[in-house]
Amino acid sequence: MIETDRLTVRPLIQEDYSAWLKGFNDRLPSQYRHDQGKLDMEECTVNWFASLVEKHQSLAKNDTAFVFGVFRKIDGKHLGMIDFSTLAREDFQWGRIGYTIHNQFWGKGFGKEAVNGALNIAFSDLKYHRVEAHINLDNQNSIRLAESVGMDFECIRKGFIYEFGEWTDNVIYFKNA
């Protein structure tokens, strides 16, 4: 867990269900291709959420992935999620970051503040030496966020991830401890 000026970035707990659900339910319609916008949350019951929290705990225990909720300190609102996936340990200590801020909270600097805080967790607590962001070439918002937190452009990986029904290229940004 880490606290920034306005945010708390920490693993989800069962008591987060209402705030988490409201964050998703209050999303605006999709703003662009890489914004999921409103989602159907009908199946996301209290019991479903309990299983999600358990799954996140299991992934963390196995050093596979670490999933954090982003909460506004002033009122506890759920603003989004940040996750790290362990790509390699031993001589690498290498992870990948993913981040999303609910679109109703865009344009207020929450993404930058949350990702900066989460990178501190990645390097100090999770002991990664290198963290990468894998970003679609046309996702300018994500590229700007990566650059704003001091991540450096490394390369374009061709046909890197299968999404939108095809193998897509990704731009790779990285930061070392």
Characterise this structure:
With 177 residues, this protein is of the alpha+beta class. It has one domain (2-176): Aminopeptidase (3-Layer(aba) Sandwich), CATH 3.40.630. 28% of the residues lie in helices and 36% in strands. The protein contains four helices and eight strands. It has helices at 17-25, 46-61, 110-124, 140-148; strands at residues 2-3, 7-10, 65-72, 78-88, 94-101, 130-136, 152-163, 166-176. The protein has an eight-stranded mixed beta sheet, with helices on both faces. Strand 4 and strand 5 form a beta hairpin. It starts with a strand and ends with a strand. Pfam families: Acetyltransf_3. One of its GO terms (molecular function) is protein-N-terminal-alanine acetyltransferase activity. Residues 7-177 form the N-acetyltransferase domain. Belongs to the acetyltransferase family. RimJ subfamily. InterPro entries: Acyl_CoA_acyltransferase (IPR016181), GNAT_dom (IPR000182), N-acetyltransferase (IPR051531).
Give a topology summary:
Layout (H helix, E strand, L loop, with lengths): L1 E2 L3 E4 L6 H9 L20 H16 L3 E8 L5 E11 L5 E8 L8 H15 L5 E7 L3 H9 L3 E12 L2 E11 L1
Parallel strand pairs: 5-6
Antiparallel strand pairs: 1-2, 2-3, 3-4, 4-5, 6-8, 7-8
Tell me briefly what this model is.
It is built from four helices and eight strands; from the N terminus they run ββααβββαβαββ. It is α+β, with helices and mostly antiparallel strands and about 180 residues long. It has an eight-stranded mixed β-sheet, sandwiched between helices.
